[in-house]
Design a protein that fits this description.
Distance between the termini: 73 Å
Number of helices: 10
Number of strands: 0
Shape: globular
Strand content: under 5%
Order of helices and strands: HHHHHHHHHH
Largest sheet: none
Length: 212
């Protein structure tokens, strides 16, 4: 692995686990993915470049530590990096203000995440997103991550990071023409798992109103 050419992802992962090559591998990682991750974080930060650059630094630091400790290369380096960056950004947004919509449930699918109450009905006063709802969504996302890490990345990139299909394809390695199909599967699986979680299942509105 020489310094005169770009390394592939597997070479970067192997280099990060080798103390003698780690610095060079990290430079390769930064050069290849730093600009893309910054663009992703800019969207999550709504154009705040200073905040995005700060989050990029944190994400790359976590990536440095995480990749150095991995026993074997991750299945998809870009997917892993985008997921890490998304989590760093969401953690920061959660700490900065509890009023930010991202502090509640992620808007992954309105059928589950949109909680509405008719005026005067029980629960109307508690319609604000709370920690239990955020924890429930995170639990569902963690289950998805364990099953298929790309599903979580797809959902976070489109619904949280507002990435376009080209950016998603670059991050996940999925052909652009297949992104819509993969997103449909990811949303479907999210709904299935959400309906198994008591907190989220209780929020789902009935498809039909029973006749009186």
């Amino acid at each position: 692995m020489g310094a005169r050419r770009d390394w592939c992802d597997d070479e970067i992962c192997r280099g990060m686990r080798d103390p003698d090559l780690r610095t060079q591998a990290f430079r390769q990682l930064h050069a290849r993915y730093g600009p893309k991750l910054l663009g992703f974080l800019l969207k999550m930060c709504r154009g705040n470049r200073d905040q995005a650059e700060d989050l990029l630094g944190r994400a790359l630091y976590k990536a440095y530590l995480g990749l150095a400790r991995m026993e074997s290369p991750c299945r998809s380096l870009p997917s892993w990096l985008y997921t890490l960056a998304a989590r760093v950004a969401l953690d920061d947004l959660t700490r900065s203000t509890r009023e930010d919509p991202l502090c509640g449930c992620l808007p992954l699918n309105e059928e589950i995440s949109a909680r509405t109450f008719a005026p005067g009905t029980e629960g109307a006063a508690s319609a604000e997103p709370d920690a239990s709802l955020a924890d429930a969504v995170e639990a569902v996302l963690e289950r998805m991550d364990a099953e298929n890490p790309r599903y979580r990345t797809l959902l976070e990139m489109e619904h949280v990071g507002a990435c376009d299909r080209g950016e998603i394809a670059d991050a996940t390695g999925i052909p652009r023409k297949q992104i819509a199909q993969y997103l449909k599967r990811a949303r479907s699986r999210f709904l299935q798992l959400a309906r198994e979680h008591p907190v989220l299942a209780a929020l789902e509105q009935p498809l039909e109103t029973p006749s009186t």
